């Protein structure tokens, strides 16, 4: 096996003149320490038989396209692997991608936390299909197969720039842009809008007791349960850590309170299934409503909702304040 550095190809999502891309990662530099640079680049060009991995989580690290040029490609915490990942949840020799007759397959190398394909732990060699996700510890990659790289790359990168890959919700940057537009629209149209801050109760104790991978499971389940309650026009985003934000267009105070309580009940309705067993999880909610007749800013609305969130925390948690 040749221990060569993975090649990165810079590109950018449609509609932007410049996109954040990352210079080639050397073999001894952890992916999590990659640095961003900006430059205009051409469309990605690859050979028809080339496959790649695109890192989509952590969301603040965009490594570009990691071409798989070797018959065997190792991933682990050791600097001797082809893709070293500096993360305690990654084993030193964690997994191997192997080129076979059907394309690339992934093999777990007896890692502590396992290798997941499409969020399912693999028990044996697993053939990768284009669009599959591969989770190594807390890192999440999307596999793009030969022949689909150019068609799926921009969509994959754009999703990584706008969505939180762990939970599937939108990210903070997308939320703030959407709030700016919705405040302007609601003010012009003289209509209500509301913003809800959501925070998982005692989340730190989940991480401290069961580890960050179980914490990630809780975050994913939380995002799905709340997302299932949301209406078509609602926007759910991960604000940071265990805190989420819900943007409700054309929604007044009573409806916002009702919506927040529906989400609260959905979270608390049944234990969260995790690798550590079922966990009882609750969340606290604080909301603020825009008065279209008074000037308001995104920062002001979020701060007001956050104040109400902390009222809910101080009042005993698992409640809604606003």
UniProtKB/TrEMBL annotation:
<feature type="domain" description="FHA">
    <location>
        <begin position="73"/>
        <end position="122"/>
    </location>
</feature>
<dbReference type="Pfam" id="PF00498">
    <property type="entry name" value="FHA"/>
</dbReference>
<dbReference type="InterPro" id="IPR008984">
    <property type="entry name" value="SMAD_FHA_dom_sf"/>
</dbReference>
<dbReference type="InterPro" id="IPR029787">
    <property type="entry name" value="Nucleotide_cyclase"/>
</dbReference>
<dbReference type="InterPro" id="IPR000160">
    <property type="entry name" value="GGDEF_dom"/>
</dbReference>
<dbReference type="InterPro" id="IPR043128">
    <property type="entry name" value="Rev_trsase/Diguanyl_cyclase"/>
</dbReference>
<dbReference type="InterPro" id="IPR000253">
    <property type="entry name" value="FHA_dom"/>
</dbReference>
<dbReference type="GO" id="GO:1902201">
    <property type="term" value="P:negative regulation of bacterial-type flagellum-dependent cell motility"/>
</dbReference>
<dbReference type="GO" id="GO:0052621">
    <property type="term" value="F:diguanylate cyclase activity"/>
</dbReference>
<feature type="domain" description="GGDEF">
    <location>
        <begin position="191"/>
        <end position="322"/>
    </location>
</feature>
<dbReference type="Pfam" id="PF00990">
    <property type="entry name" value="GGDEF"/>
</dbReference>
<protein>
    <recommendedName>
        <fullName>diguanylate cyclase</fullName>
        <ecNumber>2.7.7.65</ecNumber>
    </recommendedName>
</protein>
<dbReference type="InterPro" id="IPR050469">
    <property type="entry name" value="Diguanylate_Cyclase"/>
</dbReference>
<feature type="compositionally biased region" description="Polar residues">
    <location>
        <begin position="1"/>
        <end position="10"/>
    </location>
</feature>
<feature type="region of interest" description="Disordered">
    <location>
        <begin position="1"/>
        <end position="29"/>
    </location>
</feature>
<dbReference type="GO" id="GO:0005886">
    <property type="term" value="C:plasma membrane"/>
</dbReference>
<dbReference type="GO" id="GO:0043709">
    <property type="term" value="P:cell adhesion involved in single-species biofilm formation"/>
</dbReference>
């Amino acid at each position: 096996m040749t221990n060569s550095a993975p090649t990165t190809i810079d590109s950018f999502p449609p509609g932007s003149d410049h996109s954040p891309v990352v210079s080639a990662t050397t073999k001894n530099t952890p992916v999590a320490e990659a640095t961003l640079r900006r430059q205009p680049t051409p469309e990605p060009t690859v050979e028809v038989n080339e496959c790649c991995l695109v890192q989509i989580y952590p969301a603040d690290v965009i490594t570009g396209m990691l071409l798989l040029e070797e018959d065997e490609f190792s991933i682990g915490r050791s600097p001797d692997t082809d893709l070293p990942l500096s993360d305690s949840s990654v084993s030193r020799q964690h997994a191997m991608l192997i080129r076979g007759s059907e394309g690339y397959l992934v093999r777990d190398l007896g890692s502590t936390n396992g290798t997941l394909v499409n969020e399912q732990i693999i028990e044996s060699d697993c053939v990768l299909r284009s669009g599959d996700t591969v989770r190594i510890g807390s890192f999440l990659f999307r596999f793009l197969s030969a022949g689909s790289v150019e068609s799926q790359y921009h969509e994959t990168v754009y999703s990584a720039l706008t969505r939180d890959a762990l939970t599937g919700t939108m990210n903070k940057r997308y939320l703030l842009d959407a709030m700016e537009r919705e405040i302007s629209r609601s003010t012009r149209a003289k209509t209500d809008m509301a913003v809800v801050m959501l925070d998982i109760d005692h989340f730190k104790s989940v991480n401290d007791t069961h580890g960050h991978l179980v914490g990630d499971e809780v975050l994913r389940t939380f995002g799905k349960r709340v997302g299932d309650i949301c209406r078509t026009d609602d926007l759910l985003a991960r604000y940071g850590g265990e805190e989420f934000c819900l943007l409700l267009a054309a929604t007044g105070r009573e409806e916002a309170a009702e919506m927040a309580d529906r989400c609260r009940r959905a979270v608390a309705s049944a234990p969260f299934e995790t690798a550590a067993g079922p966990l009882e999880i609750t969340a606290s909610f604080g909301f603020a409503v825009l008065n279209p007749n008074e000037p308001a800013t995104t920062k002001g609305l979020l701060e007001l909702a956050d104040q109400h969130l902390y009222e809910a925390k101080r009042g005993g948690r698992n409640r809604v304040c606003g």
